Amino acid sequence: MELERLLLRVKNPAWYSGGELNSVVKDKETVKTRFAFCFPDLYDVAMSHLGIKILYDILNQRDDIWCERVFAPAPDMEALMREKNVPLFGLESRDAIRNFDFIAFTLQYELSYTNVLNMLDLAGLPVLATERSDDMPVVIAGGPCTVNPEPMADFIDLFNIGEGEETLLQLVDLWQECKGNKREFLERADKLESCYVPALHDRSVKVRRRIIKDLDKAPYPEKLIVPNTKVIHDRISMEIMRGCIRGCRFCQAGMIYRPFRQKSPEVMMKNIEKLCKSTGYDEISLTSLSSSDYDRLPEFADMLLDYCTPRKINLALPSLRIDNFSDELLKKLRAVRSSGLTFAPEAGTQRLRDVINKNITEEDIFESCRIAFNGGNSAVKLYFMIGLPTETDEDILGIADLAQRIVDYYYQLKTKKNGKGVSVTISLSTFVPKPFTPFQWEPQIGLDEIHRRQQLLKNAITSRKIKLNYHEGKTSVLEGVFSRGDRALGKLIYSAWKKGCILDAWDEHFRYDLWCDAMEESGVKVENYAGRRYSYEEELPWDVVDCGVSKAFLIRESKLAYENKTSPNCKEQCLGCGVKKICGGDVCDPNCI
Question: Range of 394's domain?
Fold first, then answer.
């Protein structure tokens, strides 16, 4: 009853009430293992994430496991929970998660780190792993950020690195074999190929990232939880492939999710039909790193149109590549989709696009715009980055110049209809060097330089047809600190959390002044992490992890960047990145080791 009274006093009670369509409720007396799947952010972000939906379904398919969802409360709810001594609870049972067997966090972005500490504290548990007793839950973490587990090592008992469809069940089975003996479980889990127990692991032994080999055989939900309130991505998400054939040198996802693996249209259509029936959604989003690289996309699009059009189901296809966007694809999209198109040139000049191995030309960009404009689109969104290695002011001014020439090109084509004018939106982010990329050794530009380059671009845009969006550079600097950080950053995270830093990914909650105070208190300097250039020879904090791509390959690509030379994509030529030793993939050369 205490919780019901609290829900009457918060802005979004549906975030904490549970009971959504397709959520799973079990008899807690009959299950052997209780699993709290925690997304360290607010409900509307967490419920938009596909990974948690897949793993929630996999765990709950087992009769002996009950997996419940746990999300970070908003400040209004947190304040009431602390005032009334209501511990953090699972949405399905409303039981306190401190009594569960596992508390598992997915780490999708670095700015969620303090939320992990806050959720552990709200659960009534010590945030430091060394202070948690053997009768407390095992705290595990997975997700892309765990390819560098060191910044969060002080707080996590076990990191599960890689794709979790198989390993989570393996961990639960091991827990049941150990009969809840936490010490024995951690000792045995640390010997598993993809698991890293910071308190026990010998760093000379590599932890190998787990990869699912056959996506057609990988479990996929037949039901998705349908929120009772609006969330950011309130639709069916259908994963069409994992990995990417492109070798963009800044892109961590394109490296760590190798090899390139595709799902068959037949399997996906079965998934989609079941999900549409079980959820009632009228929109489907096809998710991947580069959707238009899917080999059977035209065939799959036809199958989708046959199914979606008579049912008035909308189709979204994000992550389109400029160099393989076609009239045929646009026609298929426009049959069920009328929103603007998004492309990612990333850099404003051809020289810098070659440095980052984007492998698109100016001709590709304008051909895609021609197709879009002639097809009736008048709104185009373009993604760019500043702070890329070797970038000059000329490259930044090239962004404004390219956008203006796209505007001019629209009117040259004489495609203006119904009085609509062209709209070009530039979405600008700041380059952050990431582990397991060819740019992992690069320094990040400082905050003052971020602001200078943002202002330079802003001043160069003179047309009202062009809109510029960019984020405050302070969050990018902090992300740069953590992306390549070591275990010493645990003190910084702890200090910042104690000072009140939570929900740092949200502009209205982010407090850079408190982070600066925490840096001074913990002795952490930005220039020692984000601003540092690593050498090829030195050991890196994340070297304990083997993500598949070899360091030799990354060094080779790094050197090519400084020669302004590109490398072909994986379909054109196997470059011997090293991932073959883990899993073949759809385009890996079988003779490549």
Answer: 236-488+524-528
